[in-house]
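Usage

Read records sequentially. Each one opens with the input sequence:
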Amino acid sequence: MTPGTYLRLRREAAGLSIDDVALMTETIPPVCARSRSEWLAAIENGAAPVPIGAALRLQQLLGFDWKVFVAVCAHAEGLGNEPVVCRVCACSEWDPCLRGTTIADGTTCAWAEPDLCTSCVDGGTMQAAA
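and closes with the structure output:
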């Protein structure tokens, strides 16, 4: 999984569009929201790197675990093992699922498959990924 894919999945799991995130993100120097949307799309598509400041702001907005993101980035550079994340929402052991938030009994999601959490399974079948 690339860093951009991870960020896209976490954004989608949070129920936010690229435009939503662009409107919540400021840049220095200031640029219009449209340019920020294009820049975020380029990051998610792997066409632009993720600057550390942008990654920190996205972490604040999307609520993912910083260590998981760093591990995704390191693996993309050929360093270390890829962290275990859900292929649909990119939740992990360290940052619980945002899609379903909790299971009916109040516990967080668990692993239904090695790379699929229980919140992303619907009646035994995987929910359609966005």
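Summary fields computed downstream for this record:
- The first helix runs from residue 3 to 13.
- The first strand starts at residue 111 and ends at 113.
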